[in-house]
Amino acid sequence: LPSLSPPSRLEHLLLSMAAPPPPPPAGSEENPDESLCSALDDCSLADRPPTPPPPPSAESPGRPLDGEWRAERAWAHWRRLGSPKLVVAPMVDNSELPFRMLCRKYGAAAAYTPMLHSRIFTENEKYRRMEFTTCEEDRPLFVQFCANDPDTLLEAARIVEPYCDYVDINLG
Predict the structure, then answer these.
(1) What are the UniProt keywords, alphabetically (predicted)?
(2) What's the whole-model pTM score?
(3) What's the CATH class of domain 84-172?
């Protein structure tokens, strides 16, 4: 039987966040402070098959790369992102979508998600829905994972691949 006790503050907050906002009154202009994202993407991806690995190419020779080539490749990625100068760092329990969008509004050009646990992310749809949200304005986006199994990390990275620009591995 479901509990008959009143919802906790956290449950009340989560339920209030899940309800769609009321439409603006007729004839009123939309307040830009109230719409930082156009629409949230469905990031649960429960029925979505994993992205297949890319075919080998000249850029991924399958051998250790020399330092100069790696440095040039890193700079090319940075330029491809638009050479961002202000990047929101990954902060556990603090760099969720609303915070990232607020930072972007005030000048951040790129942002990280909070650190996500790759095993839980791949195994638990509820964890994915609660911990990973984004929208099309939340780009460039770095998704950070911690992991101790390379196959699980790869699976998690493939799940977020359509929704981010880079996957960051927390080795600390």
Answers:
(1) NAD, NADP
(2) 0.65
(3) alpha beta
